[in-house]
Every structure is written in structure tokens, then in C-alpha cells.
Amino acid sequence: MPAPLSLSAAGSRIDAWVAAHRQEIIATASRLIAIPSARVPPAGNEAAAQREIAALWGALGADMDIFDPADVPPLAAHPLYWPAWDAAPRPLRGRPVVVGRWPGRAAAGGRSLLLSAHVDTTPPGMPGDWTVTEPYTPKLVADRLYGRGAYDTKGMLAVYTEAVRCVRELGLQGRGDLTLESVPDEEYGGSHGCLAARLRGYNADLAVNGEPTHMRPCISHNGGRLWKVTAVAEGGGLAFAGEARENPIVTLAEVALAVDRWRARRERDARVADPGRAVPAITLAQMCSGGQVFADLLGVPERGHLYLAVQEPPGVTAEAHAAGLRAALAGVPQTGARWELRPCSRYLPGSRMAVAHPVWPLLAAIYQDAQLPYEVGHAPFACDTYVFNLHSGTPALTLGPGGGNAHAPDEFVSAQDLSDLVRVLARLVAAWTA
Ligand SMILES: [Zn+2]
User: Fold this and answer.
1) Could you tell me if residue 1 is inside a domain?
2) Domain range spanning residue 247?
3) How far is the CA of 123 from the centre of ligand 1 (A)?
4) What's the CA-to-centroid distance between 152 and ligand 1, angstroms?
5) Which of 9, 53, 316, 348 has the fewest C-beta atoms under 10 angstroms from its C-beta?
6) Whether residues 337 and 357 fall in one domain
């Protein structure tokens, strides 16, 4: 292993650089937030934001590679390929992956580092729901930088950009190669952007996948899947003659309550098994029936649907996951409106990095040097990190800032955390690639 760089010498230079560039870090994050890149299933809308990122990294002297996932031939043959979302085709054209590479100072000897994050966001929601600013008009209020994607994960793409700027201006990259990547198609269980980059050959001795973890480097993360329950009545409309009507609303309510009882059982069982462990969540995300506004229908609706997301810890197979959900719903009768359950995303497994990986003692030293509290965490959500850990030779941890309202109105990220993450990652680049 290469001799560790003197953290304290590099660290004080990095801290001085970050103190002088706090406004630039906010400005870079704001620039990215201002460009809409929402996934609206089944399509995506990442190209304009990716052009901006390519320009930023190109200006920092990177060797650039910009490619469509659809142009990576093994993708369509890979077991992770999931060409549909909720039964609709998922287009992968015009949604580029952006990779920037800075070769190390020597042809051999240094360890390589890859910093990855997704550029797609969830949709902005209804305009009136945002109270602090518009979704694509970033606004800093005290320590909170508001805007769609600020927290998940454009803040992290800004952190990567500014950490590379810092490392280059201070001449701190060592012998190992440094790679940044910005991938499309993560939200709604995509993974095609991250998978395409692995299949194109961008792998390293260590990867960081940027997701909101409140500053904790996470050794593991949950998996999960999105499901849809559709309920259909034989005949809808107003019961003029007082005839009985099966009602999808009643059926969906029974499904929702069965799911919620299962959630409570899982949480209780998990706490009994391991009192300190984070419990994988179940989210009842959307229930629709009978139109959008009251005037749409004054009678029994013909159909309705319920979306739910079910998380699982690392090690749970897709089969065990589906069997658990089906068992939970087994008691909901088919005697009212007929209902059926089907997945509308791929199953995303959780994954875990090795405890013995040399990055853990290094990160402990880096956090100590940066005078930040250090706690190895578990990320309680599904994300692309498993693509690295289970489908490539690149071990990956998950790391990102604190903030709030991910996937919701008034999403924000901590500006202090963005600066602190530049301090952490600039140190990591220097020490890991030394
Ligand atoms: Zn995310």
C-alpha cells in the first residue's frame, strides 16, 4: 500500500481553499439545480444538465466521455436490463452518461478513485406546493439551499466538481487515476446509467456513490421495489336502482391497511431481532380512483390504483421480497372489486462493502483531521450503489450531505455540509491516490 499522505499538511491547505470558495460551491450547486432534469416515467430529461456538467468538468481539464446507455452494447443483454416502467417502454436515447477522467501522476502504483452520482431528479410536483422558492430557482435561506435535486443529488455533483477544482489547484492528486461520473436514470429504479458506465469499463479500486446520508459514510444500503395494485369493478356509475356496487376504493383501502399491518409487524420483528438496526421502510406512495376532481364522477369508479415502495436490507432476494408482500396481501378478498398486484420497477437489492476494506481506517483519519463527527452508517434507501458492489469489481460506499424533503416540495440541502464534503473528498482524493 502506498505511504499515506500527511493529512494534516494537505488538510490545512484544503480547509483554507474551501473557506475561500464557499460562495463558488453554492453557485455550482445552484447552477445545476436551475437546469430541470426530472425523470417523468417512463422517460427522462437529463441531457441539458449533463451538457452543463460536461462543460464544468471539461474546463477542469478532464478527458471527457459522453455516451448514451443505449450505445453500450452489453446493456440490453445484462440481467439488470429493465426496458419498461409500469408497463411503458423506458427510452434510453438522448439521456447521456457523462464521465470525466484525470489520470494520475504515474502510470502505475496509485490507487484509483471514482466519484459517482445521479443527475436525474423526481418531478417538481405541483407549482403551488413549494413555499420557499420555485423548484428550479435555487434559493439560500440561512444554511438551507432550496431547489429540486439540491439534496438528491445535484449538491453532491457540485461537491465532486469543487473537490476536483480544489485538488487540481493545490496539486494534490497522487499517482492514482480520478474519475467523476454523472449518470441518468436512477430514480424509479432505473440503474441503466450506472450500469452502462460499469459495462463501458469505468471501474476503480474504490467508488463513492453520492446520495443523502447526512455526512455518514455508509457501508451498506437497503434495496427495494415499487409495486402497483390495480382494483377494477365490474360496472361503475350511479346506483339508480339501489343496486350493490363493488367499489375499487374500498378494495384499495383494504389493501392499504393490510400493507400497513405488515409494516408494523416487520418493524416489531426487526426491532426484536436487532434493536439498533434501521428498519426497512414501506411507503404507501399514491392512491387514485374516481378522477382528479370531485366533478369528474358522482358514482362508483370503475378502477383505481395504489403505488407502494417496499424496502429490504442487503441479502434479501427478489423472490423472498415478493413472497413477503404477497403473503401480507393474502387475506384481502377478491370478492369485491378484483385486484391484482404487479411490480412497476425492477427489484433493487441492497448491498454491503467489506468491513476490512482499507478505506474505513482512512476515512476515520480524514474525518478526525477535518474535525467532523465520524460514524459509519447504513443508508436506509435503495440506490445505484448495488450496481458497483454486486455487478462490478468496484467496491462502493454511499455518502452525501444532510438536508430534507427529498422527492417532495421544498427540497433543500445543507450548505455547510456541501463545504464539509468538499473538505472530506479533497482529502480522500489526495490520500487514496497518493
Ligand atoms: Zn438519489
Assistant:
1) no
2) 223-343
3) 13
4) 5
5) 9
6) no
Residue 172 · residue 429 · CB < 8 Å: yes
Q: How far is the CA of 296 from the centre of ligand 1 (A)?
A: 35
pLDDT in tens, 6-27: 787 899 999 999 999 999 999 9
Q: Residue 107 Cα, ligand 1 centroid: separation in angstroms?
A: 34
The pTM score is 0.91
> Mean pLDDT across the stretch 90-94?
89
Q: How far is the CA of 426 from the centre of ligand 1 (A)?
A: 22
Residues 58 and 162 in one domain: yes
Residues 86 and 171 in one domain: yes
Apex 188 CA angle, 183 and 191, nearest 5: 40
Residues 200 and 291 in one domain: no
Given 318, 343, 368, the domain boundary residue is 343
229 and 190, same structural domain? Answer: no
Cell numbers describing residue 188: 424509479
pLDDT tens by residue, 238-256: 666 566 678 899 999 999 9
- Report the separation in Å between the CA atom of 175 and the middle of ligand 1, taken as the mean of its atom positions: 31
- Whether residue 318 is found in the same domain as residue 376: no
CA of 212 to the centre of ligand 1 (A): 7
* Cα of 406 from ligand 1 centre, angstroms: 8
DSSP 199-258: HTT---SEEEEE---TTPPEEEE-EEEEEEEEEE-SS-B--TT------HHHHHHHHHHH
Q: How many angstroms separate the alpha carbon of residue 382 from the centre of ligand 1? A: 9
- Determine the distance separating the centroid of ligand 1 and the alpha carbon of 121, expressed in angstroms: 7
Distance 79 CA to ligand 1 centre (A): 22
Let me know how long the chain is. Answer: 434
> Which chain residues have CB less than 5 Å from ligand 1, an ion?
152-153, 211
Cis peptide before 74 (omega within 30 of 0): no
Residue that is last in its domain, among 275, 308, 343: 343
Q: How far apart are CA 61 and CA 321, in angstroms?
A: 45
- The number of domains in the chain is 2
In a domain, 2, yes or no: no
| Coil/strand/helix, residue 10 | helix
Tens digits of residue pLDDT in 336-378:
889 999 998 889 999 999 999 999 999 999 999 999 999 999 9
Assigned domain for 170 exists: yes
